[in-house]
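Case study 2.
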Amino acid sequence: MPFELPAGRVATTIHIGPYETLPEAYATLAEEAKALEEEINPSSPTWEEYLSGPETPPAQTQTVIY
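Prediction:
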């Protein structure tokens, strides 16, 4: 179901590795934003863009997180 995201700035990074380690990437992104004195609202929506197909080995899977 499509939805509209609110306007605003977005923190983003590319995670390389298995899906199971995505929470670590989100935590690192939040830490980096804080180091840059940017606030991430924990109630803001997050989303992912999958750059790798299912045939990609887990260690090489690329996911953009927003």
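Helices lie at 22-35.
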